[in-house]
Amino acid sequence: MSDRIIPIIDLRALNTASAPLAPSSNDSDGTKANGVLSDTLHRPLHDLRISVTDRCNFRCVYCMPRQIFNKNYAFLPHPSLLTFEEITRAAKLFAAHGVHKIRLTGGEPLLRKDLHKLVGMLSNIRTPAGTPLDLTLTTNGALLAKKAQLLKDAGLNRVTVSLDALDDGIFKRMNDANFSASDILHGLDAAHKAGLEPIKINMVVKAGMNDQQIIPMARHFKGSPFILRFIEYMDVGNSNGWNLNEVMPSRDVIKLISGSAPDMQLIPADSNTDIANIINNNINEATAQRWKYRDGSGEIGVISSVTQTFCHTCSRLRLSTEGKLYTCLFASAGHDMRQWLRNGTADEQISDMIAQLWHQRSDRYSELRSSQTTRPDKIEMSYIGG
Hints:
Blueprint: E1 47-51, H1 84-96, E2 101-105, H2 115-122, E3 134-139, H3 144-154, E4 158-162, H4 168-175, H5 181-194, E5 199-205, H6 214-221, E6 226-232, H7 250-258, E7 266-268, H8 275-281, E8 289-293, E9 299-303, E10 316-319, E11 324-326, E12 335-336, H9 337-342, H10 347-360, H11 365-368, H12 381-384
Parallel strand pairs: 1-2, 1-10, 2-3, 3-4, 4-5, 5-6, 6-9
Antiparallel strand pairs: 7-8, 8-9, 10-11, 11-12
Helix pairs in contact: 1-2, 2-3, 3-5
């Protein structure tokens, strides 16, 4: 196999956007300063992912490979990061537009100092219907044992934890930072004790690297309080050297688990349909497709972001660490919301620009992806979260 050169572009320095936004004096384009929004494909805005740091204590091969994110890599200086007050102000405006779920991401969000204070501030926000936001957090779990109770007390509802293997040799090769699986398992136990539930565990499956851990992971968490989810290896960013041949389709994961032992047989969680029916029809209407064990001892999920795309139901907007808005995980350009928050722009004007941005949205990268797909300017996942 010939060496592959991976082009790296620091897109954080670019302030390009797919369309210029400016306050408008009317709503002739169908947008409103407040109220539920719909994009060009009739998808509503319901979810906001907020990256609170671009730093991470892991160097996962599929996200922040060490050869790129090494000691010489220039992470964002602290003044570039949105403050907790700026994040909270933005979140209030998004809630007025129909956002009811906020997920805090990174990098590794637990590296952000005093994160529980931000959680407390966000927990006070209410939707137009008067209900609290669903506050969640995605973490690698290494610091969770120390911070789970503090986050719960501040108002965090639940967590999703990344764990790619139980075998320490494989796990350490995946995270490339010498963390053991036991570190993450302790964090999971602490989150369970604190009541940050339901707790989901995400395993990114990279064929030839950790696919032999699928059955041990499924067996370990079967009958536990945790929901294990298997994620297809994605071409996020430019630095992970993604190859379609390293993607293990979710349908193969289901077949593998279900055929491993009589007590591991799976059926769709919402019916008694035979396993072959949904696999052969290649159907996926949600981000995670849920499967339950036939013996009733729990469930798993699969996220088929490559083989069974779900762009047509995507309702997510992403706010980067330094305040840029991205309408797609695979975007190459963002809209600078930080300047709106810091230059005296009124809330009503910012709200109008949010409406314009979502109204113009037409992203569906995953539906158009192929084995020949190359876009050397996608933003890195560690910058905008998963």
